[in-house]
Amino acid sequence: MLPPALISLACAVGFVICWSSGFVGGRLATASSMPILALFAWRFLFASLAAGLYWRCSVPQRLPARALLAEAGVGSLTMGGYLLGIILALQFGVSAGLTALIAALQPLLAATLAGRWLGERLGAQGWLGMLLATLGVGVCVFDDINGVQAAPLWAYTLPLLSVVSVTLGSFVSVRRALRLPMAATLTMQLWAATLIFTLAALIAGQGRLALPVLDSVTLASMAWLIVLSSLGGYGFFVACLRRLGVTQTSTLVYLTPPVTLVWAALMFGELPGRWGIVGMLVALLGVVIALCRGRLTVTPSLGGTQRA
User: Fold this and answer.
1) What are the domain boundaries of the chain?
2) Could you tell me the pTM of the whole model?
3) H/E element, 305
4) Going by fewer Cβ within 10 Å, which terminus of the chain is more open, N or C?
């Protein structure tokens, strides 16, 4: 049996790697001939079928319908609402850098609300770390911006709505008294995201949903998004929420832009500039300071947290 601290560390590392892979998967998806909303709808459908098959094989007992619907509600916020806002913002012309910068506000929003709703108090050291991480992410993003895209003013609210969506979903998930098996949780959340993206794709396609294109680019991006981003990213996301709580899980989000830059450098040859490297180091320092402020453990019966 592995020590709980080692399991928590493994969940945190897995979450950062797989969560950041979603941005790379989005980059791969843009090269596909499929409309991106349709591609994401099929991606979530296949991922939910895979998770559902595992659930069927591993959890023989019946689960309360109300609890399953509640998990679907969480998924509609943390998966559907979050990703839909990000993708629409990019489609309407908001730059990827600015979108990532707005998305980086999520940990601050989570930390602000966690003290009132969940009792996860963030001390002076925690706030210092969060602010340093925010500064580091901002430096990374601005180093990555090559130009300014024209977009309607209202489009800049879309990534902000994504931040609100994933934060609310995180709080609802942690506050739930009944915890379902991981396979059931992931299946219901993926089905909710499937429904949201299918409706969005149908609206964008004027009632038609594009079928998957069986070319190497589409299949590669689909496999990447299903395995790493959907099953890995959201599986580790749920695991971190249960083990670390909302505040610490949100703090880990600060590491995803620097890790995404590493992904891009390895896969696409897009090397970060001098300020990008500086931003990575500042963000890493801030996350270390914030996470070292005191370990939080989730209380299963209440969905709250306490210091260990």
Assistant:
1) 4-307
2) 0.78
3) strand 304-307
4) N
